[in-house]
Amino acid sequence: MKVKSKKTLRALLLVAVVIFCYCLWLSLRTVEIVAVHHRGHGSSAVLVRNFPFTDKGKISWWLKNKNMLKEKYDVPQPEKDGDFTVVFWLFGDGYKETDGYDRLCFDDMPPPLNCIDKSRVFSANHSRNRGISFIASGGIYQIKENGQIVRDVDN
Question: Are residues 45 and 114 in the same domain?
Fold first, then answer.
């Protein structure tokens, strides 16, 4: 019976190592910005590949790269009052034709290949009332005046 237990333990250890290596690889991939579309009224859509998969990773990526986004892509483009919204979408299989229903289409590109499948992964927002906030899969987060990032428990 001990032989079977050792084989099972080795198999489980191998699976754990493979899962750990895969997660490590996912976390170390470089975010690729495929395109940026300015949608007006302080809103921008950033199409990405390899975006971090944790809320903490997404917020950290934004904080580390917000200056690069402004310099290289002019994102965000706030309104006069400072309000803006930047939405990050997974680029997925690339640009597609409209399906007339659920794809996100961009007016700054000529049809027919000017739409993507909607796969929103993150957004960064600024408003006069709330300041900077983030929307990720785990909820809404806000930067407090002291710089602390907290999850909004009301949402």
Answer: yes
Q: What is the DSSP string of 16-48?
A: HHHHHHHHHHHHHSPPEEEEEEEEETTEEEEEE
Distance CA 115, CA 98 (A): 6
| Interatomic CA distance for residues 58 and 52, integer angstroms | 5
Same domain for 86 and 19, yes or no, is no
Flag whether pLDDT at 155 surpasses 60.
Answer: no
Token pair of 47 as six digits: 């199409």
For residue 1, the model assigns a pLDDT of 44
Query: Do 22 and 38 fall within a single domain?
Result: no
- pTM summary value: 0.84
| 13 and 39 co-located in one domain | no
CA-to-CA dists, residue 150 to 56, 57, 98, angstroms: 11, 14, 38
Range 20-30 average pLDDT? 73
Q: Which domain holds residue 19?
A: 1-30
Paired residues of 134 in beta bridges: 124, 141
* Contact by Cβ (8 Å): 48, 34: yes
User: Total structural domains in the chain?
Assistant: 2
Q: What pLDDT is stored for residue 3 in this prediction?
A: 53
Tokens of 127: 């408003």
Answer yes or no: do 117 and 92 share one domain. Answer: yes
